[in-house]
User: What shape does this take?
Amino acid sequence: MNMADKYDVLIIGGGIAGISAALTCRNRGKTVAVVANSTESQSLYKAEKITNYPGTPEMTGKELAESLKRQLDSCGADIIHGRALSVMNLGDSFGVAVGNDFYQATAVILALGITREKLYPGEAEYVGRGVSYCATCDGMLYKGKKVALIGSSEEAYEDVKFLQEICSEVEHFPKPAACEIRGGMKADTLVVNGEEHKVDAVFIIKDSIAVSQLAAGLEKDKTGIVVDRSMATSVPGIFAAGDCTGKPYQLAKSAGEGNIAALSACEYIQKRR
Amino acid sequence: MAISHLSKADFDAFTGEGVALVDFWATWCGPCRMQAPILENLDAELGDSVKIGKVDVDEEPELAQKFGIMSIPTLIAFKDGEVKAQAVGVQSIDQLKDMLA
Assistant: This one.
């Protein structure tokens, strides 16, 4: 078996909380990997002007996002392009699956941004029975069949191309207003805006997957992932920072939480040695 | 006991008697690769009391179809050839033990 790359800290999310956490972990001499989508897909990138972040007056969102990206690129952290599918406790470390690969780390920091928690009707019911979050994983199981894909990210478009090579037909719904998945023992119908589409599988490819599907046992409330003052979640070794822990959705709050989560993760690692 | 790679030819003999856990997986799937060290730990912990096997769905499409595998990894626990429990997605060592209990 190939031993997966093992890091001290693996950070899921390349927004300001994740980058802040990465910088602090690197300052403390830890090996770090950051799982990140493209900078252009961040909401910060689209912000017209940032007026309340200290030290950067008159900056556009694009400028700040690009400046953060440069800082991340030069801090010595490995950057893993893609979407985390699953975080699992392996006993003495955590495993994190990203697309075709998997990585190991002693501690994990979730900096997921605002996550999509509301599932489509039928989604949870048919996960693994016609609903999939990973086209590269499950695409081959639908060779020659008709499938649908929901999602508008860069990865979603790549996955559509990938599925078109395998499946007989791929229906792509980038941003459907209303969706429902129906079926019997397995999913067989996707209803989009009241219109029924007969398909053998529905691939849901969003920027981040729901916390409940990402990691088992993480406590959440209405606002987000439950954390204490040290940014520790209900799972020892997993920390969280930024918008995924709840409001206010502000850059300064996210950067601060990323910093605290990083320090707490470093302390956690120290105690285990 | 080492983890066995199963094919159509030896699957029934492997699962037919006693308790067996089978992982349906493929090389291209990240979550499946994450499942592998968990299975090795389980194997080391449980020893001879449970047989652990793996089916590469790419090489054994008939077995994948027979068990209606629609997402990988899928783990199936067998007792004397009967399906006892089935789970989709990466399973922790505790979740696997629950499936076998």
